[in-house]
Amino acid sequence: MLLSLGLSACQREAAPTAAAPATPAADTAPAVNPAPITDQPAENVPPATAPVSNPPPAASSTLARFDGYGDMRFGMSVEQTRQAWGGELKGKPSADSTCYYLLPIWASNAREFGFMVEDGKFARVDVGGEKEVAPGGGKRGMSADEIRRLYPGKVEEQPHKYEQGGKYLRVADPAGGAGVLVFETGADGKVGHWRIGVPPQVDYVEGCF
User: Which among 2, 122, 130, 146 counts the fewest CB atoms within 10 Å?
Assistant: First the structure.
């Protein structure tokens, strides 16, 4: 009996310490995820405008000029023209003509690209490809209406000598120089060839032929 009483006393003394303290309410609240960190501005910002692919080159970016091409100037001698070009130019006059073309090594014929020489002087550039751009922005493949808009009030029109419906669109140097730009359109109204040079050579319809 004494042993039973002792055990009961021990249990009664230990009971108050058995219960765990209540957890504060604040500790049981779920953790709040912090706002994500971002380097973007809070306000709506319109997306950047994508660059226009292949924008039309400015007039200053072309090598063709109303007074020549690159470092070459109309009126230069053949030797001066070759030196100004700085590379190989093929071509020489025939026995019965003083008019001929100097061609870069990559050009197959003057209608594609060539420098006209007459009486020993550089007088004209012929262009038949799309990469070259005329001063003012005109180029192969443009319509006659596009040419008129690029050179407002400056285009003199003449009928094509060989192609029905084709035209020659002639533009004099707006700065008052001697140079003249001529766009040649076909029956479809598109520029297929253009040339720039000084009269009378720039107006030779057949070139040197």
Answer: 2
